[in-house]
Give the backbone structure.
Amino acid sequence: MKSISLKSAIQLGIPDIIHNHGKPIKLSELVDALPMSKSKSHYIYRLMRILVHSEFFIKDEEERYWLTPASRLLLKEGHFTVAPLVLLILDPILTKPWDHTMEWLADDRPVSPFETANGGTNFWEVAGREPRVSNLFNEVMSSDTRLVARVLIDDCKHVFDGIESVVDVGGNTGTLAKAILDAFPKLKCIVLDLPHNLVGLEGSNNLTFVGGDMFEAIPCGDAVFLKWILHDWNDEDCVKILKKCKDAIPDKDKGGGKLIIIDMVMNIYEGDDNKAMEDQLFFDMAMMAYLNGKERSEKEWVKLFFDAGFTNYKITPAFGVRSLIEVYP
């Protein structure tokens, strides 16, 4: 109920209305600003009551509502907004697979619950034919990438030492590549993605967009980036992708390149960080349901790296529940 209430608030634009009001807002002022029938205005009090209780908003002594740090992350124009992520996770296209888990478990075919719920069609095929899903997914990835780029450049800039060219696999609109180039203008960046994701995008002197398939070939560079890519795929497909990445970077006897992965490493947290572990478990279940993928432990990652022909790696926890993984040929 908390999640659905939050979705309703985002769809109604409540965080943005309060933010744009510039000060705590009365219930009557909020209702007047909402795209709704005034005959149902009394329901907004009940919606706000549960959202205040859940600490998404606060209510002052004068019965006025204001934003909390959590609801500021729901502003649609916020640089690091998570509003698209909430809307995507709670979209019927991603809630439907959970209603088909029993049917999926009884099926011997290597398909995901998403495919079971959609007549054999996978998520990428649905996103490719439904602009609404594709646009929402792209918004999620762009917002997440802006956050990752800031941490990468501020706290992990050493990963770019000795590198002259970078290939961002699945880089979509180039959010990460552009952020890297802003910080390191002498680099050359290539963004590889499926051709239909690159329509209308234009490169520059040191940024090139290449339409292609990572299972077929990856452009060459000193380093290859895989941000939140491999958890989408099963182990067999991951090894195929990793081998293509290895083919794209210089061998050890030619100076050596590296693969840079930003993804989760399960059970890496010391002590009793239950919240971090819970978040990782949630994502693991999501990958199971939507894509037939998974989150992996260090042991599982290492097996993939060695199976693909890599010889060494380094893991640095750096992005909340995700880690920076540098892999070497």
Summary: Residues 1-74 form a domain with the Arc Repressor Mutant, subunit A fold (CATH 1.10.10.10). The two ends are 48 Å apart (CA to CA).
